[in-house]
Automatic annotation (TrEMBL):
Residues 8-278 form the Tr-type G domain. InterPro entries: EF-G-like_DII, EFG_III/V, G_TR_CS, P-loop_NTPase, PrfC, RF3_C, RF3_dom_3_sf, RF3_GTP-bd. Belongs to the TRAFAC class translation factor GTPase superfamily. Classic translation factor GTPase family. PrfC subfamily. The keyword Nucleotide-binding applies. GO terms for biological process: regulation of translational termination. It comes from Dialister hominis. This is Peptide chain release factor 3. It comes from the Bacteria. The gene is prfC. It is found in: Cytoplasm.
Length: 528
């Protein structure tokens, strides 16, 4: 296979959903199709915590959740698939968001009975801000569900994207018995009785007027299907590949991950429509995956993956060029050369050393503290700097201090390291030396921080949640004495010594903005 073919066959994506919509189940089914059976078990195990699968972090075992994101790689239908696993728990963190920077498309799983839920909305926004294609899988149609037209309207109202159903559930009043494939005009019916939600469903396929199909459907169901299809053809958005590519239209599939119904057709269509690695923006202009010069960016740093060795692994997404083991690359931010001598691929439960990797692939590099999240590594003779790596506005704040002042040194060291790793945002308050304020996007980040300070840095901390929900930076770092009406704001300083104004709610932030019309307020730190 040529290098170009290798690039073209890569599909790097994430599955996003609200907890319980079926992300784990769908991921497992995709892995099963890819023949990665031993991995499939581990996806579930990580969730149920019945087995200690992930040895990366004790907390994962305790809580039965994936705190870190790993990569699931397998081949299917000629494609090399990299699924970037994102924490599926309600308490998600910046890691989830950052992982979405490294994908080329996303699959959004929606529960047919629940529709678009809170976390789906947040994750969707991160993907849609990047303008990447998003595919919708409406799951659990073996169960009672919402009307599909209502779901389409909901997706448009809540997420602001139009949808194009590729298939359509067959059934009335939320009771579905199969799907109709709009492209092939085939009906696929499952026989409800032997489902019970566990076994693979028995399926009958045929055209709508085939006897085998007709005899299993009531005239009411057939009539309803025909009128729905007519309405879709007339009033629905036609499939438009360009719009899908730009993230303006989401192809919508109905199915049931648990019973395997509709999963394989979904996967095949998805691989056909989802984009291979595309050019990425850099400060020096766009860089294409076919460009022979190697470039990659770090989207995640994980320290102490093996607590015995105090190692630090930087996960990077390759954007251009071919990676070969032992290559020397330029770390753009420090200007230093790094030898990528022990590159690893982290495939759910096992590490493998990589000899060669292509754009779209993810590799983990042991790092000595040099690399930071968002950093670029590239070839010295072709330096580039990846941009658009956002910092997500924190929504939760807490004061953190060591329980014993004897541990102050370890505390400072630990907090400093975790901040550099990007695990948490750390702010200082003027004249207060014994505590910091930390900001996060999810509660779990606080717990992980507390746990890691205890286990990795041997310091027990007090963590007190504060009643602030909103942070504002200012353009040009306007100092507090130049602002009017900051009585309700807590003034803190970030690691670049920029003033940050913490406010109890967005309304108060709006009020502060109104009172200082000449100041430009920012919801996240200015880039740089
Ligand atoms: P996640 O939190 O999004 O990863 O969701 P899971 O994949 O763990 O699924 C949540 C629950 O829904 C589990 O009990 C699954 O067995 C169940 N589930 C997943 N897919 C289906 C489906 O297609 N039909 C039905 N009836 N249940 C499903």
């Amino acid at each position: 296979m040529t290098d170009l073919e290798e690039i073209q066959r890569r599909r790097t994506f994430a599955i996003i959903s609200h907890p319980d919509a079926g992300k784990t189940t769908l991921t497992e089914k995709l892995l099963l199709y890819g023949g990665a059976i031993h991995l499939a078990g581990s996806v579930k195990a990580r969730k149920t915590a019945r087995y200690a699968v992930s040895d990366w972090m004790e907390i994962e075992k305790q809580r039965g959740i994936s705190v870190t994101s790993s990569v699931l790689q397998f081949d299917y239908a000629g494609c090399r698939i990299n699924i970037l696993d994102t924490p599926g728990h309600a308490d998600f963190s910046e890691d989830t968001y950052r992982t979405l920077m490294a994908v080329d498309s996303a699959v959004m799983v929606i529960d047919v009975a629940k529709g678009v839920e809170a976390q789906t909305k947040k994750l969707f926004k991160v993907c849609s801000d990047r303008g990447i294609p998003i595919f919708t899988f409406v799951n659990k149609i073996d169960h009672f569900g919402k009307n599909p037209f209502d779901l389409m309207a909901e997706i448009e109202d809540v997420l602001g994207i139009r949808s194009c159903p590729m298939n359509w559930p067959i059934g009335v009043n939320g009771n579905y018995t199969g799907i109709y494939d709009r492209e092939t005009e085939m009906c696929h019916l499952f026989l409800k009785d032997n489902a019970h939600g566990v076994k693979k469903l028995e399926v009958i396929s045929g055209k709508i007027d085939d006897e085998a199909i007709k005899s299993n459907l009531t005239p009411e169901i057939i009539e309803s299907l025909e009128s729905d299809l007519e309405l879709l053809d007339e009033a629905g958005d036609p499939f438009d590949e360009e719009k899908v590519k730009k993230g303006e239209l989401t192809p919508m599939f109905f199915g049931s991950a648990m019973t395997n119904f509709g999963v394989q057709p979904f996967l095949e269509k998805y691989l056909q429509l989802a984009p291979p690695p595309e050019p990425r923006k850099t400060l020096e202009g766009s860089i294409s995956p076919e460009d022979p010069s190697f470039s990659a960016f770090v989207f995640k740093i994980q320290a102490n993956m093996d607590p015995k060795h105090h190692d630090r692994v930087a996960f990077m997404r390759i954007c251009s060029g071919i990676f070969e083991k032992g290559a020397s690359v330029l770390h753009r931010q420090s200007g230093k050369m790094l030898r990528l001598s022990q590159p690893q691929q982290f495939l759910a439960t096992e590490r493998q050393t990589v000899e060669k990797a292509y754009p779209g692939d993810i590799i983990g590099i042991f790092d000595t503290g040099e690399l930071g999240v968002g950093d670029t590594v590239c070839e010295k003779k072709h330096p580039v700097t990846f941009i658009d790596f956002p910092v997500f506005p924190p929504e939760l704040f807490a004061r953190i201090s060591p329980e014993s002042s004897m541990k102050r040194k370890q505390f400072l060291n630990g907090v400093g390291q975790l901040a550099q790793e990007g695990a948490i945002q750390v702010y200082k308050q003027p004249y207060i030396m014994e505590s910091f304020i930390i900001g996060a996007v999810g509660q779990l980040q606080f717990e992980v921080m507390k746990y890691r300070l205890e286990n990795e840095y041997n310091v027990t901390v007090n963590l007190d949640l504060m009643e602030y929900t909103t942070a504002r930076w200012t353009e040009g770092d306007v100092p507090p004495e130049e602002l009017i009406g900051i009585d309700n704001a807590l003034v803190v300083y970030d690691r670049r010594e920029r003033p940050v104004y913490l406010l109890p709610n967005a309304w108060q932030a709006g009020w502060l903005e109104q009172r200082n019309p000449k100041v430009k307020f920012l919801e996240s730190p200015p880039v740089g």
